[in-house]
Amino acid sequence: MSKYNIKIASNLSGIGTHTLRAWEKRYLAVVPARSSTGRRLYSDEDIEKLQVLSELCSLGNSIGSIANKNIVELKDMLGKLGRVKQNIKPVKYKVSSSVEVNNSLKKLLEAIQNYQIEVLSKEIGYLKGSLNSRDLALKILSPLLSELRHRVELKKLSVAQEHALLAMVKFHVGDIIYESYENKNKNPSSISIAAPSGELDEFDIILFSLLCSHYGVKFFYLGVNLPLAPLVEATNSLEANIVLLSIKSDSSKKYIEDLFKKIGKSRELWVSGAEHISKTSLASEEKFRSITDLFHLDTCLKELGQV
Questions:
Q1: What is the pTM assigned to this prediction?
Q2: Which tens digit of pLDDT belongs to each residue from 59-77?
């Protein structure tokens, strides 16, 4: 029996992810199974019922009045409304092949070159439903955001255009991040993800969040340009045992050294982009880890996810 995550269930049923959660919590329209990390897993029967519910709601029924009916009753209602009972069936979902992923990436890169936001949004919307969050991060968004960053550096895109494109990407990955917050992960590790004061590049920490989501590692997305005191306070309050930073310049060296002193020996500090800072005494510290690239972080998170 097939099982689908909430993004795929949303695509198949035509119901938004937030609405799916609301229908489950308020009306028990469907009660999906859960994975070992707490992710929703929808069956073919769940998808079929959601499709019929969506059709009935579009015809004027309120979800509260029909959510608890079984599939036979719901199909009978469709029949009485002049709809064919058997015309709604679960669609077998096909995960994109490597060829399709490469073609999608090519289309996305061309869309960036031509600043076609609608094309980008439509393609990323499709891919986030067909790929897991790891593949979305490593195979699609990482090369895509690298190209975006490169074109801004060459002044082929303005800062305003960069912000517009980044906002679109954040809109699409927001559901994944929100779903991760909602899941009750059993993994004991938790990570504060941020960029220090003066560091405004948000690309990397978006990708970090997607990888954490994939491996079922609890994380807290704290954003960029974060002063030292609020980061320490948030990390203590959230009881995160790892702080993961993204840096791009040598000016963050003192921030990192001060942070390491303040978070205590019970926490680890992982820094992506440590090559940008001059030699630091932290390199020999057991609780300090320099993350060389996204694939290195992927390996580290995979190890955490297996705990």
A1: 0.68
A2: 888 999 999 999 999 998 9
The pLDDT tens digits of the residues spanning 240-272 come to 999 999 998 888 888 999 999 998 778 999 999
Q: What are phi and psi of 101, to 5 degrees?
A: -65, -45
Q: 271, 261, 305: which is closest to 291 by C-alpha? A: 271
3-state SS class at 25: helix
- What's the gap between Cα 307 and its chain centre? 21
| Nearest-10 Cα torsion for 109, 140, 124, 213 | -160
Q: Alpha-carbon distance 294 to 275, whole Å?
A: 14
User: Is the pLDDT confidence value at 2 over 80?
Assistant: no
R_g over Cα of the chain: 22
Among 179, 130, 171, smallest CA distance to 20 is for 179
Token output for 19: 């609405």
The three-point CA angle 184-5-71 to 5° equals 110
- In terms of Cα–Cα distance, which of 104, 222, 210, 108 is closest to 165? 108
Helix (H, G, I), strand (E, B) or coil at 5: coil
Q: List the alpha helices (DSSP H) in the chain.
A: 6-13, 17-22, 44-58, 63-66, 71-80, 98-113, 117-130, 133-135, 142-153, 159-182, 203-215, 228-238, 253-263, 294-305
> What domains appear along the chain, each with residue ranges and CATH number?
3-80 (1.10.1660.10), 95-181 (1.10.1240), 183-307 (3.40.50.280)
CA distance 178 to 24: 16
Q: How far apart are CA 255 and CA 293, in angstroms?
A: 21
- C-alpha to C-alpha distance for 304 and 188, rounded to whole angstroms: 9
